[in-house]
Amino acid sequence: MKGDFHVRFRARLGLKCSCLLDKVWSSRIYIAYFIEGLDIGDPQMLAKLGSEVGLDESELLNILNSYRYKSELQRERSHAESIGMRGTPFFVVDNKLG
């Protein structure tokens, strides 16, 4: 698998796409990574997993390869780190780690 940051970045990018496409697939990603040992840092794999839960595989792959949401994800990460996030999963309540 690629570097840890790369894996998390791609997975978060995929999650961002799922929200935009009004689908929930985070549980499929967790199962793929933690139970099945799949490389969720690979755009092809994420697109395949997305298609399993009803996302358009080609549209998802285009989004993943375009880094369309890179700036937004970087802002979210910076904010999370600024309030003390050091790993995942984490929860934020009233702009504080819960």
Number of strands: 2
**What is the count of helical runs?**
5
- End-to-end Cα distance, whole Å, is 30 Å
C-alpha-based Rg, rounded: 13 Å
Order of helices and strands: HHHHHEE
Poorly predicted runs? none
Q: Which shape, going by the Cα principal axes? A: globular
Helical content class: 55-70%
Largest sheet: 2 strands, antiparallel
**What is the strand arrangement across the widest sheet?**
1-2
Oligomer: single chain
Entry summary:
By secondary structure, this protein is mostly helical.
Give the key terms.
globular; 98 residues; mainly alpha; two-stranded antiparallel sheet; 61% helix
Structure notes:
This protein is mostly helical and 98 residues long. It has helices spanning 4-20, 26-35, 43-52, 57-66, 70-82, and strands spanning 92-93, 96-97. The chain is globular, with a radius of gyration of 13 Å. It starts with a helix and ends with a strand.
